[in-house]
Amino acid sequence: MRALVSLSRLARRIPTSLAAVRAPAPLLLRHIHTDAPPPPPQDPPPFVSRILETEPSLAPSAEAEPEPDPFLDEFLARFVAAFRPELAAAFPDYDRAVLDEMLRLVADAVMCRITGADPGPDAAELSDDLWAAVWKVSASVQEAMRRDQVRADLRHYLHCDEVKEMTRFAVDVGIRGSMLRELRFKWAREKLDEVEFYRGLDDMRTKAEATANPAPAPVPRLTALPKRKGEVKFTMYGLDMSDPKWAEVAEREAEAEAHFVPQEAKPVEGKAKKAEERLLSIDPRRGDPVPPMEEWKEEQRPKRVDWMALLERVKARNVELYLKVAEILLAEESFEANIRDYSKLIDLHAKANHVEGAEIILGKMKEKGIAPDILTSITLVHMYSKAGNLDRAKEAFDFIRSEGFKPDLKLISSMIKCYISHGKPGEADDLLKSMKDMDIKATREMYTDVIRAYAQQGMVNPAQNALRAMHMSGIESTPELFTMSIEAYGRIGDPENACGLFQHMRRSGHEPDDSSIAGVVAAFMKKNQLDQALLWLLSLEKEGLKPGVKTNLVLLDWLSMLQLVLEAEQLVQKIKQLGEEPIEIHVFLAAMYAKSRQEEKARRSLKILEEKKKLLKADQFERIIRGLLDGGFSDEANKYYKMMKSCGFEPSETIEVGVKASLRMRGGPRR
Q: Is the Cβ–Cβ distance between 572 and 556 less than 8 Å?
């Protein structure tokens, strides 16, 4: 305020004739007033010949006017516009003429300070406070000009080739809407920063070169050009660019560019908005989305970009409805469905375990004459492997390899698991061996799955071969692999190799677990060598290794088959003391009690098994039924026979014949 008061005092001392003296300043007055004053009358310029001259014109003119500076003009215009409200607020009683004169004094001082010109003897001196106010307004004006320049540069680089290329890639991967706009501005900003960085380097190099090499003498200025006749012709890289055909090329280029630049979806308003709301409120399992989609189409007149925007909104609301709407749109002409649309739907159905839905989309895809590509086949391999359809998974996998595509670890792992789930560890092992030809290193998990599959089927030699191949590939054995090999020897009844591998496991520094001990005991059980098994267990107990639940279950199974009732009951109490009571206990006890005709104890175990029938397996059902038949409990055997079939298991021929034979007998239970 003190600065403005000093300016007011200075303005009062301005004589009236000062305006006439300061009249020849059209540049500053142009920024103070809206309209420029009429130019003063001037003498007509002297005649200058239209020839090419190498020296400046010798016409009797005064000093040549300086060339206009657009940046300086813009700054002064903004400065005057920003400084006027402060003056008007500080001096509300002054009229416009006085405020204009005050602005002219300040503008003259600022102009002289910026250009370094001599202000002259009649120039007004501004106080320090007034200069501080002037610099404050000037800083805000410069900041506004800088922001406007940045916006203009951003608008320019939004349409550069690099940003367009990245935008096309983002659209291809499915980015739309506000996120796409943010990415475009981010890329344009990065391009602007890069250009400014290299521009700064060029300026530094130019200054260095100017310092090292002084500028040569100025070239004589050309003041006139010869008059040309005919059309202007110019060439670029040997091409005549003045030919009209290049105008057609430019038009075609603009049309082609329109296909690559992402289009914006039309806003949804009016009846189309209501139709979309009805579509989003439909239950996908009961409702029909076709009527609101037809109404939306009639009102919106959509293109592909509009359909894609609608699908994004539907997907955000309900994924099941999205799958149904997207499936309908595959037959829509304006949607322009391509192979990626089909593969996306198949992938979504596969992730949701909807095999039938994925096969429907695949059928429509083939009806349109579109063959599945590599990405679609990879999705089908994962889906069919997870669903357990080996034939279809193998068909898709063979197609991928026939196309020359190199499968990755995830794809091969899915096929290995599919082979193993169908009881074909040999084919899984062959696929594992073929990975060497594809320069892909198998993982420990793959070898473990194959060895486990061999061990579960009692195929010891192939399991050992797979274990050696794993060692040759640089993968060390784990306690789990040792345990699986011991269990394989237990299934085939080879106690010698099982004990040898058990000792090798201990020498390798691995602590044996209950499963490995149970595998050795199972091998002794296959050979019916109870004394050797008990001696071996006693030797382990002396070394501090006590059998756990699994080992005791193997012993209980052995004792129940030998009909050693008292020893089996003692072993059951020992298992219960460990804090667990597996369902296998009652399976073994029910068969044992039924064979020994201890009806009360047998019914007690059978009642528990009936409550947990969903946990029973096929071999356990047959074990119970066989014990009941041997004990003469025909009704109970028939009951568990029907229970077995209701649980989805198919009884063996021996069990089926035994149950039917017992039903034909008359007179109750067999003695």
A: yes
What pLDDT sits at residue 217?
67
pTM of the model: 0.53
What is the rounded CA–CA span in Å between residue 660 and residue 407? Answer: 53
Please state, in angstroms and rounded to a whole number, the distance separating the CA atoms of residues 587 and 488.
23
Q: Which residues of the chain have pLDDT under 70?
A: 1-67, 215-234, 257-262, 665-671
Report how far residue 392's alpha carbon sits from residue 213's, in angstroms, rounded to the nearest whole number: 77
CA–CA distance, 257 with 245 (Å, rounded to integer) = 18
Contacts for 636-644: CB closer than 8 Å, 24+ residues apart: 636/594, 636/606, 637/662, 638/662, 638/663, 640/606, 643/610, 643/613, 644/618
Per-residue pLDDT of 336-370, as tens digits, reads 888 989 999 999 988 888 889 899 998 888 888 88
d(CA 104, CA 112): 12
Residue of 75, 130, 74 whose CA lies nearest to 106: 130
What is the chain's alpha carbon radius of gyration, rounded to the nearest angstrom? Answer: 47
Cα–Cα distance, 85 to 51 (Å, whole number): 52
**DSSP H or E run through 235:** strand 235-236
d(Cα 193, Cα 199) in Å, to the nearest integer? 10
Helix, strand or coil, per DSSP, at residue 39: coil
Rounded CA-CA distance 138/140 in Å is: 5
Phi, psi (deg, nearest 5) at residue 25: -135, 65
Under DSSP, is residue 76 helix (H, G, I), strand (E, B) or coil? helix
Alpha-carbon distance of 601 to 339, in angstroms, equals 66
List C-alpha distances in Å: 247 to 161, 176, 232, 250, 395: 20, 33, 15, 5, 53
pLDDT attached to residue 312: 92
The burial class, CB within 10 Å (0-12 / 13-18 / 19+), for 50 is exposed
Distance CA 565, CA 572 (A): 10
Ordered DSSP codes for 517-578: HHHHHHHHHHHT-HHHHHHHHHHHHHTT----HHHHHHHHHHHHHTT-HHHHHHHHHHHHHT
Give residues with Cβ within 8 angstroms of 88, minimum separation 6: 99
H/E element holding 462?
helix 460-472
The residues, any chain, with a CB within 8 Å of residue 374's CB and separated by 6 or more, are 400, 403, 405
Q: What are the φ/ψ torsions at residue 438 (nearest 5 degrees)? A: -95, 5
Angle at 232 between CA 226 and CA 233, to 5 degrees: 125
User: What's the pLDDT at 205?
Assistant: 87
Please give the angle made by the CA atoms of 214, 220 and 223, to the nearest 5 degrees.
Answer: 140
Residues 102-144 pLDDT 10s: 888 888 888 888 877 777 777 777 778 888 888 888 888 889 8
Measured between alpha carbons, how far is 572 from 577 in angstroms, rounded to an integer? 9
What is the crossing angle of helices 70-90 and 96-115, to 10°? 140
Across the chain, which distance is largest between two alpha carbons, in Å? Answer: 147
pLDDT on residue 5: 42
Sign of CA dihedral 359, 361, 367, 368: negative
Place of tokens 């528990």: 608
Using one digit for the tens of pLDDT, what is the confidence trace for 10-67? Answer: 444 333 333 333 333 333 333 333 333 344 444 444 444 333 333 344 344 444 455 6
